[in-house]
User: Fold these one by one.
Assistant:
Number 1:
Amino acid sequence: MLNSFNQPLAQDPLGLTHAQFEQNPRQVAPAAPGFDTRKTIAQQQAGALLEHRLDAANTLNARLYAGTRKVMQTLPMSGSAPASAGGVVDLDNRYRGAGLSWTHAAKLNGLPLHWTVGIEADDLDQQRRGFVNDNGSAGALRRDELDSASNVDLFGQTDWTFAPQWKASAGVRASRVRLSVDDRYVTRASPDDSGSVAFRNASPVLGLTWFAGDSLNLYGNIGRGFETPTLTEIAYRAGATGPNLALRPSRSRQGEIGAKWRSGAHSVDVALFDARSEDEIVPLTTENGRSIYQNVDQVERRGIEASWRAAAGQCGTQLAYTLLDARFRRSYTSTQNGLVAAGNRLPGAPQHSLFAQLEYRPAPQLVTALEMRAESKVYVDDVNSDAAPGYAVFNLRASREWRAGPAVWILYGRLDNLFERNYAGSVIVNDSNRRFFEPAAGRRLFVGLRATL
């Protein structure tokens, strides 16, 4: 597999205050033109997947990949202070990884038993440099370090149909993750911030499925999660230079029960879920585009997901709804917002999300569809001081498929935000300048051509 991506220029108009968003969502924050805020990205990746069947019961799977990713971003600040990390961020990433797994299929008491064991290893080297932002140009050096992240995981999973209508599953993943920083910019104002940290964890999961009938399955899953900080999340710390190596991994307990029903042209999926985490990684403060993170306890996400699909002749419909109740269950203190009360909702997470689609196939190889996506309001900070209003947008899409020689060609296109609705597509959580609101694009057209040999 080969992949190449080039984004030569993405201008950043920055977020808007609520008043600016209401007045004119297409305006640009005053700091953006002066510092020429923008981002460029270039990424190349190559990889290979291999599956080898040893015999009827045993299969080996292997993967190998490597790539590079370069990012240059100018922030709305000069970053000229001696202890600053600069106002121009230059990231040069090189990454690679490999994995191997063995799957065995057998029978126990005449019923299927499958298990898989494997190992995965991944590694990333990131050269992070920061420069003074001289009105959009890179000036004097303010940061130079080599960051690295690596992991080695061992995992195993088994599925056992222990009765004609019952299947049990169990799995575990043992992880070791190491983050390190080699500081190469050492001055009187910016001392040597080199260091490293390692995390270890074992994450188990258990599941049970009841085949209640030919068209109905009921299931339940429970497990533990483990999420380490990323290099981006440890990049800055409050009140000092260098990375935040004191940031801890988030650990969670998750449970889910659900049902899957299939009957003719109809299908319904329903799931109830609950996830509770300790040491959740959340923003401590956001300053001039830089996010500084901290750990907080007793963060809960619970809710319901439901979807329905149906097909009749040339038409098809889909309806999906999510109710998400995401809250801080314990109060904590933020250097930017002060006291965050227990019961506050997590910012950036809508409580209600709805998706609907009507698909029509006027010809065998021609597909058209009308989509609708709606979300409720989204709070912008941990203290819930403001919120981006809810919205509903409509989109059109179409695709045409045909064969030419050895290739299958697909011409496809989308027309998003059909009625050019003004809404906040995202929010900058806990922004210190209260420029929380990032307006979504207006009506936009996307077309593409894909060939498969």
Note: Helices lie at 18-23, 31-35.
Number 2:
Amino acid sequence: MYQLLLDSSNIYLSVGLARDGKVVDKIYYEAWQRQSEMMVTEVDNILKRNSLTKNDLDAVVVGIGPGSYTGVRIGVTIAKTIAYALKIKIYAKSSLSLLKDVQNPTICVFNARSGRSYFAVYEGKKTLVKDCVKTNEEVLAYINEHKDYKVCGDTYQLGLESSKFDIIQNLAEFDESELVKNVFELNPVYLKDLGK
């Protein structure tokens, strides 16, 4: 069986297929403010080009935020609808965790607007700093104190170049701690509403 991998929390549209933790196909491109138009079509496209139907899926893995308010809702709503309709498992992952480099400590950032960034730090499977919102000055200070860490994500607002990351591969590496027991209780994560 296959797992459908979805994330639309930021500027990229990410749709993938995995089998036993290995990505077998992916669709990934910039689709800022067009995810709602494109995601369902791309789910159909990836299944067709792999000669699969939705009945070949046994789980959906989705990035639940933080990120773009509308983008996060799109991915989560589509994932919940598919999981509920097919009666399959759904796994939820932090969208910031999808930016990490599993080989190195990684500072993960998305632009939260108004001079702020969604921010988290990961090392392998460990979370060093939980998902939060920081001012860009605080993020730059943290980066300056951890020069040996990779910095991944939307870094243009920080005046930095991002290291490479693989959202779809990180979606494929889910575990049972990320299983959502009740699909109706899965909600997007909007850190902006909580402040810093």
Note: The longest strand covers residues 126-135.
